[in-house]
Amino acid sequence: MDLTVGRAGRRRNNVVTIRDVAKHAGVSPMTVSRVVNGESKVRAPTRDKVAASIKALNYAPNLAARSLASADPVRIALLYSNPSSAYLSEFLIGSLEQSSLIGCQLLIEKCDGPEGAQAAFDKLIAAGAGGFILPPPLCDSAVVRDALEAAGALAVAVDTAEQTNAISTVRIDDFEAARVMTRHLLAMGHRDIALIKGHPNQTSSHRREQGYLSALAEAGLKPLKGRVAQGYFTYRSGLEAAERLLGGRSRPTAIFASNDDMAAAAVAIAHRLKMDVPADVTIVGFDDTALATTVWPSLTTVRQPIADMARTAVMLLVDMIRRRRDGLAPEPMHQMLDFSLIQRDSTAPLAKR
């Protein structure tokens, strides 16, 4: 119930109401209510439109009224072990914003690799966590999944290509995203395109490599010897991989790094070797984290909606927890969000070099 609306439907003290948000977004008040309450059965474009209106109007849901409806608040946990601070920052922002919006409590716990998962689960379950959000790399860990199953815990895995009947997932199409980026480089005339792979313990790494190889194959090409370098989604691993790719006499004309951290590292190596980016080498990344626009030149990259993926994970998990409380089966759901290619200053057509 919206306690800020009088009998005549007028706002008191200029407080923004759910009806104002609905009018601004062009949807029904019921749709706004569903978004605010974390229900997953709202189409992503509609949910995004409502979220934008909530932000624009600075709408604050009446958490006091909501807490009266349930004496047992929903409490969820975010378990992380990600080496990329840029990725983690985006993920935390999305998780915190959505948790605040729908009035659930978010516990955040660092896990020192999959081997520490069981202890972390025990601690968080004891603290009242009704379910877990697992960003990469924990989303792909068999050890973590086994620990979840043993605990009978609900979970949402983010950015994984593994789909099971036990865990909900949120992801983009990493294969298609990498293929689109590689096609973009090919369209600019590049044929000698190197790849810095992501960590082998993540399914997204494999999918991105396969998308890259597929686009090359479509053009009748395959990577030259030594043009695929192993990375681990860290800046340091990007330095080492870029040094191998650019340190010899034979250099690729373009480098596709599997995340922005490694792409930024490749830019740094190019500068150290007195190479101009993009005049001497084109470099692109993946994720579109804040790092992509803080390096020079700014990175052309694939925009993975990390914060929105986290928001979706929160809503899916809360919905599963509420279904279980209502005596219903918490059916896992699998949602795929859109990606986009963002063109900036780190790329140039081969003919203009």
Secondary structure layout plus pairing:
Elements: H1 18-25, H2 29-36, H3 44-57, H4 63-69, E1 75-80, H5 85-102, E2 105-110, H6 117-126, E3 131-134, H7 142-151, E4 154-158, E5 168-171, H8 174-187, E6 193-197, H9 203-218, E7 228-230, H10 235-246, E8 254-257, H11 260-272, E9 282-287, E10 300-303, H12 306-325, E11 334-336, E12 340-342
Parallel strand pairs: 1-2, 1-3, 3-4, 4-5, 5-11, 6-7, 6-8, 8-9, 9-10
Antiparallel strand pairs: 10-12
Helix pairs in contact: 1-2, 1-3, 5-12, 6-7, 8-9, 10-11
Concise overview:
About 40% of the residues lie in helices and about 15% in strands. With about 350 residues, it is of the alpha/beta class.
Can you offer a commentary on this structure?
With 353 residues, the chain is an alpha/beta fold. The protein folds into 3 domains: 1-71, lambda repressor-like DNA-binding domains (434 Repressor (Amino-terminal Domain)), CATH 1.10.260; 73-172 and 306-338, Response regulator (Rossmann fold, 3-Layer(aba) Sandwich); 174-304 and 341-352, Response regulator (Rossmann fold, 3-Layer(aba) Sandwich). 42% of the residues lie in helices and 15% in strands. It has 12 helices and 12 strands. The protein has helices spanning 18-25, 29-36, 44-57, 63-69, 85-102, 117-126, 142-151, 174-187, 203-218, 235-246, 260-272, 306-325, and strands at residues 75-80, 105-110, 131-134, 154-158, 168-171, 193-197, 228-230, 254-257, 282-287, 300-303, 334-336, 340-342. The chain has a 6-stranded parallel sheet, sandwiched between helices. Strand 1 (75-80), helix 5 (85-102) and strand 2 form a beta-alpha-beta unit. The termini are far apart.
